[in-house]
Amino acid sequence: MFSREESAQLRKEFWTSFGKSFPRKWLLYNTKIKGFSFKFVADRKKAMVCLDLEHPDEIANKLLYDQLLALKNLLETDYLPEVIFDDSYELENGKLIRRIYVPHNQKFSIYNKNSWRDCYEFFVDKMPQFELFFYQFEDFIKQAI
User: Fold this and answer.
1) 38: nearest Cα among 116, 126, 131, 144
2) Ranges for the DUF4268 domain (predicted)?
């Protein structure tokens, strides 16, 4: 087991190494839609690329999610066939959000450096597809709110 400091250092090293290995400007929080952001997730058991819907207004949050559900078939067919829609995804802190995500299906732990490279390649393969989908349908998505 790792101490808190060792754990923090490994996480920092993981993300720093990812940024240096694959320097690129990612969309992430720059969607210009409140509470609508793309995220990379990597922890001790899993990795994924996500689109999180956390708009403070629950009605707007639901409208955005419903708008994306209307595009689900296109997202699965043309961009990310393995995408998962979850309208009540529970974060580690217990908060429920709406999350659309693609899980990394290989064995991964942020504490195992041997699994990092596969995860990085997964990130750079899947996130651009997510971003491309967003750019293609950005105007339609924004119509929800």
Assistant:
1) 131
2) 10-136
